Amino acid sequence: MISSYVENFRLGEALQLFDEMPVRDAVMWNLMIKGCVSCGNLDTGLRLFDEMPEKNVVSWTTVIDALLKSGKFEQAKGLFWKMPERDIAAWNAVIHGCFRNGKVEEAIRLFEVMHDKNVISWTTMISGLDQHGRSYEALSVFGRMVGSGLKPTSSTFSCAITACANECNLCLGSQVHSHVLKLGYVFDPYVTSSLITFYANCKQMQECLKAFDEKLHPNVVVWTSLLTGYGNNGKHEDALRVFVEMNRLGIVPNQSSFTSALNSSSEMEIVDWGKSIHGAATKVGLGKDHFVGNSLVVLYTKCGNINDGILAFKEITNQNIVSWNSIIVGCAQHGCGEWSLVFFSQMAKAGVDPDEITFTGLLNSCSHSGMFRKGRHFFECLSRYAAIEVKLEHYACMVDILCRSGKLNEAEELVKKMPMEPNLTIWLALLSGCRAQMNVEIAERAAKKILAIDPYHSAAYVLLSNIYASAGRWTDVERIRRDMKKMGTLKQLGRSWV
């Protein structure tokens, strides 16, 4: 009865029934503690744990796992070391919790001092290391596991193949694939999905198709991996064909399927395809999902349908930072700077903190809409956000703003004082700004910097030649043409019949 109440989230009735019980054994105490934490009432679960007369390893593990899921790492670790005896499940729970809370080194330390490791222990380490960007170490752990004679499960193989995909290690991944075939895990949809992603990351699409077999895997995860793999390799028509085929076979797309299909439509700038996918997502209840919605905003704004992009943004149920950035950047691309600022104001009211992409969008909005003072204000605001790193993109936007407002000298000074080495984009922004202001001196210095980085950069030659031509310096124009011919970058200049 208590179990039934808990499953239906009727915790109050479960607790009342538990309190009325004359005799309560360890199983009943554990059931009630687990019920409390499952219903989100950790405090009551901890109180019952403290009151429990005879705790067993299940009691301890349940509470420790609940604390780790709640982010209370130190408290969980303290209880773990207080356990009278620790079984493998307790060790595995704490190691998993370490990764969940970003304590990677602590997880490694616990794993190394753990005496009896089972396949779950090894798989947890492989997965945890890979998810924290340490795929090479994850593969090393997988090697140790295989060397110890322990047989990997389908989950282990899936994690190891994912690590190979992240490392783009074709050689090792192919070896793991051979083991998968030998042990018969090729029919597991998650192993196959990982293999498809692995080969796609390694640009081996033919191998993807070999791993994929629609007759063996009528599974949305496998189909979505192939769809995404094609998209990530720039084969967007093939990606959309996969999406059509999976729908024809009655395989209902999931969140990732719709997102990948919309991204391919966006890359090809086919808005009609996007609208069709939008309709299909709405039919299965994913039209307002934030992942799908974010892709819709990008699609519509990229295809020039700014109003549809705004409508898609407003439909998103839980707008996250990506949602706000997508609409701010989309408005900036269409020269709707005032709209970008309005959305930024709404974003602040919603309590969503901006990031680097937000400010790139805002600076671009101000630059393209002629709001130079506001652009300077946003650039100065960047330094106030400790969590935001000022990047080259922000400097490039600010250089563009200063050039468009006629402050070429200030733009050049900003470039000189940058805390990082200016790249081609920065110098090109400065060189482009020189043309409108007819400033040959700064143009020459900017072009020199560009050609020092890339001697074959034809755009720099063309821009400098045009600036010389506008200034009537035809001798320098001819010199630039000779230099371009010598470097093999000569571009056929246009002619006018006027």
From TrEMBL:
Keyword flag Repeat: yes
KW Phosphoprotein (keyword) present: no
BP GO terms, sorted: RNA modification
Residue windows of the PPR repeats: 25-59, 87-121, 219-253, 320-354
GO molecular function: RNA binding
PROSITE patterns: PPR
Domain of life: Eukaryota
InterPro entries xref list: E_motif, PPR_At4g14850-like_plant, PPR_rpt, TPR-like_helical_dom_sf
Cross-referenced Gene3D superfamilies: Tetratricopeptide repeat domain
Any single Pfam family the record assigns to this protein: PPR_1
Keyword list, A-Z: Repeat
Descriptive protein name: Pentatricopeptide repeat-containing protein
